[in-house]
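Q: My labmate handed me this sequence with no annotations at all. I'd like to see what the chain might look like in three dimensions before we decide whether it's worth expressing. Could you predict it?
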Amino acid sequence: MIKMIASDLDGTLLLDSRTVSARNRMALTRSAASGIEVVVASGRVLTSLPESVFRIPGIRYAITSNGAAIYRIPSDADTSSGADASSDVSSASARILP
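A: Here is what I predict for the chain of 98 residues:
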């Protein structure tokens, strides 16, 4: 059983336009709707992640700074400031690990 999908952004999930293709968006939306945790992972800091990524329903976590930080993304997050995102490692691991 798949519990989590984590995807890098640059050169993987994002198109050259820094957006997510309709096909990938649909696949991730369906995955999240079926109970799979969809997580974005990037070497970037949270505030530099493209807003298009957070428009995908079900994206609740971001692993950033080459794995140095994990953020829970509130559904109404303003990721431009990073002020609304809080570290929540234990919650993410509890949902993923048996």
